[in-house]
Design brief:
This protein has 228 residues and is an alpha/beta fold. It has helices at 25-36, 59-67, 70-89, 95-102, 109-119, 123-127, 134-150, 159-162, 164-172, 200-204, 206-218; strands at 19-21, 177-181, 189-192, 195-199. It has one domain (19-218). The radius of gyration is 19 Å and the shape is globular.
């Protein structure tokens, strides 16, 4: 939301730009893996469970990954991948990088390196497609349909427009991006100098969202912390 000049009667500052990432793929994928395989994650500040829990693995699948230590290894490494993915989500991509990406050759090493920088750390970097079975595709389709159906139908219903009185001070304090994760309850964290992480439930709730924005504006939002 931005205009090149002030619009009479529009309370949104014409110079204010805010990005909302309501489907951070790498973060959601990691959250799904944690629950779909019932990982025994020991991590400081790990987010709450997903709102829409997928069907858990069958006993045969679980016994198979338990038998050779795979599940224990996944549980051990998950916090580190999560922390690195959160660090990446807390950054602000330069729009020029996408233009530069289009100038690289198909299949070139330059394009591969640039894509890795833009995408950030992923589960596949460590384990390939292990743990990402057919269930995640069905879960993603259901989650996308639910997210699309529940999106605001008018500008006034947008959480940022609705909470504009709290958003403007947060933006003036440096807020440039909101990242949401589909977890139950609250998990409000400042994950970068200019980025705030909240659950979808918090962003959808006017009072909770207002509180999160006020915390950012006051510099009292909880910083992300975890293993590096």
């Amino acid at each position: 939301m931005r205009s090149s000049v002030p619009i009479p009667g529009n309370p949104w500052p014409h110079e204010m730009v805010l990005k909302v990432d309501d489907s951070p793929h790498q973060l959601v994928e990691l959250l799904w893996i944690r629950e779909a395989w019932e990982l025994d994650v020991i991590a400081i500040d790990a987010p709450p469970p997903l709102e829409d829990r997928p069907t858990p693995p069958t006993p045969v699948q679980r016994s198979a990954v338990d038998a050779d230590g795979t599940r224990a290894e996944w549980s051990r490494v998950w916090p580190s991948i999560w922390s690195r993915a959160i660090d990446h989500a807390g950054g602000i991509n330069d729009a020029r990088e996408f233009a530069l990406l289009q100038q690289t050759g198909d299949g070139s090493l330059e394009r591969a390196a640039m894509l890795r920088r833009l995408i950030g750390p992923t589960w596949r970097d460590e384990f390939g497609d292990a743990a990402l079975d057919e269930r995640i595709h069905a879960w993603n389709e259901r989650a996308f349909a639910e997210r699309t159906a529940s999106r605001p139908r008018s500008l006034e219903e947008q959480p940022e427009q609705r909470n504009l009185d709290q958003l403007i001070p947060a933006w003036r304090a440096g807020l440039e991006k909101i990242v949401t994760i589909p977890c139950v309850g609250e998990h409000t964290r400042q994950i970068g100098e200019h980025v705030l992480l909240v659950t979808e439930a918090t962003r959808d709730d006017p009072e909770r969202y207002a509180h999160a924005l006020r915390e950012f504006a006051a510099g009292t939002a909880i910083p992300n912390r975890g293993p590096r």
